[in-house]
Amino acid sequence: MSARRKFRREGEERRRQDLIDATLDSVAEHGLEGATLRTIALRAGVTAGLIRHYFPGKEDLLQEAYATLMGRMTEQAKAALAMEDASPRQRLAAFVTANLDAPIIDQRVFSLWATFIGRAGADPTLARAHREGYLGFRNEVEAVVAEVLAAERRKPDAAELRHHAIAINAIIDGLWIEGCLAGEMFSPGELAAIGIKAVEAELGLGPLELKGGNQ
Amino acid sequence: MSARRKFRREGEERRRQDLIDATLDSVAEHGLEGATLRTIALRAGVTAGLIRHYFPGKEDLLQEAYATLMGRMTEQAKAALAMEDASPRQRLAAFVTANLDAPIIDQRVFSLWATFIGRAGADPTLARAHREGYLGFRNEVEAVVAEVLAAERRKPDAAELRHHAIAINAIIDGLWIEGCLAGEMFSPGELAAIGIKAVEAELGLGPLELKGGNQ
DNA sequence: AGGCTATTTATACACTTGCACAACAACGCC
DNA sequence: GGCGTTGTTGTGCAAGTGTATAAATAGCCT
């Protein structure tokens, strides 16, 4: 009667990934407090003991899960800047749009981000991870801004450029939060439109078509 | 030898407030997971059992703590708009500044906000509380924006006004986050300056002194 | 097919958690 | 001053936590 549970041996990489995904799901659903080893294991379809086989402790699992999350977020965000054959201004607009539409606007990802970042004040490791991700993101923004202004024959100094990047970063972040927390209050594409207009206003860019502007 | 601990009977309101403050401190420092009844009680200078005397359960305590936090945040934020004898534009600038300088820019408050808001996706009560706070805030912004534009003889329609409010809200939120998470990267007043410039750009306001502007 | 090994399960354990309850003592009232 | 009320403490408990470790078995190699 000792019916021991059947199981399959998955590859190491696969199991680690499954466990990390199960961890992120658990955290998103029940918060850090509710993400217990047993909950995570249940979600991953294994028993709790197995986790210790792949991770030294719970803390390590959480850390790797957060790193994975950040990696996915920044990867998706930067991908929008990759368009080769487009004007700087178009690329900037595409970047803003990419950050303010699905799948970046996502309540689950936001919950994860907020839950983890809430501990940045107490956890220096987390704080540094965020700092690096943030600076990387801002540098990308700054680079595109430089290109956009160069195309307009404007020569901003370093401080000006930095301020623009900070402001644009804030616009994107702020709208991202609004969209994640109250997505149904905005029609599709509305946030992106607001974002593009705000960013172009920040950079002092006039409307694209100079003639025929009624209003 | 049964040296029972000495104690004082505090007023009910005082005790509740102390417990709530101790709860917020605990959450800010150790996250929701680390905020146990015993930790909270220790911080409040009482024993754990007492909490049950004032709150039906831990969940209720956390809920009240969150409500208190939100109340303080919005109260401080709105207070900046109260200036009576000032031009709309000055009041808007003061509002932005108030939200981007101490004591609103504060890592502890941010940690609390993030920790709680991270559960908004799973907790409808929290989600609604946030929604109301957010809309209240945005309506305030919208009202000032309307005044500012009116003073400039501009007559925006409702949609335009709404978009401005959303964008300005995003700018403030985004800069607030940047400041809380990496405050030492910005010189004092820098975020506020960036914010004001960004907001005025969003509204299409020219520089205040039209003549003599030597860059 | 049969054995080896490392993945996986299952159980145990010390500890913490939220909650319940009885004993106690601080303070207001007479 | 004594007394009753009730705010407060201390202890207990069942459930759940992370971790440790022994037992089992799936899948590969020959």
Question: What order do the helices and strands of chain A follow?
Answer: HHHHHHHHH
CATH homologous superfamily label of the largest domain in chain A: Tetracycline Repressor, domain 2
> Remind me, CATH topology of the largest domain in chain A?
Tetracycline Repressor, domain 2
Overall mean confidence score, pLDDT of chain A? 90
State the major sheet of chain A. Answer: none
Percent range of helical residues of chain A: 55-70%
| Helix run count of chain A | 9
Q: Identify the quaternary structure here.
A: homodimer
How many structural domains of chain A? 2
Residue windows where pLDDT falls under 50 for at least 5 positions of chain A: 210-215
Q: What distance lies between the first and last C-alpha atoms of chain A, to the nearest angstrom? A: 82 Å
Cα radius of gyration of chain A in angstroms? 22 Å
Secondary structural class of chain A: mainly alpha
* Number of DSSP E strands of chain A: 0
